[in-house]
Amino acid sequence: MFFENGRMQWVFRTQSGKEWRVYGNHMLTGRWYHVTVTWQAETGLKMMVNGQMVDRQTLFVQRY
């Protein structure tokens, strides 16, 4: 997980090199958020902020 300039990025990579990324934008510093990220091989990576889905990535990138 990375946070920079109000943007949270979550990266999930399998041992075989498949990689998914999701982003949460417009997040303010100094404020609490409830962030949940889930992954399933069939549906990919999902990010929810305060109970609302903000991003979903179903396709992966092969990194190696």
TrEMBL record:
It comes from the Eukaryota. This is Uncharacterized protein. It comes from Dreissena polymorpha.
